[in-house]
Design brief:
8-stranded mixed sheet; 27% strand; alpha/beta
Length: 256
């Protein structure tokens, strides 16, 4: 099964990083967040990726082309230019890198990937969010209900500490927990080819009319994930993810 990843947005809210690189290439622990996302899928056996490029897409192309060299020990014959790789630290990934336009909206990017998705069920997520969602359970949930679309619903991360009172006494305090009320779109979709009929063109935002129509038609189901989920919209989010990685306890690192 193929995994589509949207990696074409401009990431204006984290411009400190995205002035020089696309947001999916912003690093957490010395690796692009895109790499973390792909490792998550690969852990569950999903190794075929289709990446929608846009803003600074050439940066992602160079990274993928050079990945094998960067991850290997090398012997270089300077005279001939031959390069011999040693070791096998490279993941078993196949990656389609598809230019989907600079200003194309999310729905338009998804539709432009259609020729690469083999007319079958596929997974989809954004290139700027990590989670510990069990992708096998997500897929099993999708197959059981038989609808066109499954979205992973998550609790939004709280921005401030949470307190529970007994009178004026603080009974319970949690520093920036996941919110206990409300659910939001956490991406990590499973989709059927029929969803393409809900996307008009390049200027269609997937999160607006297509998802709203799927919901009205009874074709959108939610897989509720109560574990870890975090997007990287701002520099503050990046620093949070970086600190979790450096602690050695990053919840999304489920691979060895």
């Amino acid at each position: 099964m193929k995994v589509a990843i949207l990696a074409g947005g401009m990431g204006t809210r984290i411009a400190e990083e995205t002035d020089i690189k696309p947001k999916p290439m912003v690093e957490i622990g010395g690796r692009p967040i895109l790499w973390h996302i792909m490792q998550h899928y690969s852990y569950y056996g999903f190794n075929e990726f289709v990446i929608a490029l846009g803003y600074k897409g050439e940066y992602i192309k160079r990274y993928m082309v050079d990945y094998g060299l960067a991850e290997s020990d090398l012997t270089v014959d300077i005279a001939s230019g031959d390069v011999l790789r040693h070791g096998n630290r490279r993941p078993d990934w196949t990656v389609d890198l598809v230019d989907t336009g600079l200003h194309t909206m999310t729905g338009g990017r998804i539709k432009r990937l259609r020729p690469y998705l083999n007319g079958s069920t596929f997974m989809l997520t954004w290139g700027d969010g990590v989670s510990d969602v069990n992708l096998k359970e997500l897929l099993a949930f999708h197959r059981r209900h038989g609808k066109l679309a499954t979205v992973t619903a998550v609790r939004p991360p709280a921005r401030f500490g949470h307190m529970v009172f007994d009178g004026d006494r603080v009974k319970e305090f949690s520093e920036k927990p996941q919110a206990s009320e409300g659910w939001i779109n956490g991406a990590f979709f499973v989709l059927e080819p029929g969803i393409f009929d809900y996307i008009e063109g390049d200027q269609t935002a997937w999160e607006r009319e297509p998802m709203e129509r799927l919901a009205r038609d009874g074709q959108l189901m939610a897989y509720r994930h109560t574990g870890f989920w975090q997007c990287m919209d701002t520099l503050r989010d990046k620093r949070l993810l970086e600190s979790l990685w450096e602690s050695g306890q990053a919840p999304w690192k489920i691979w060895k």
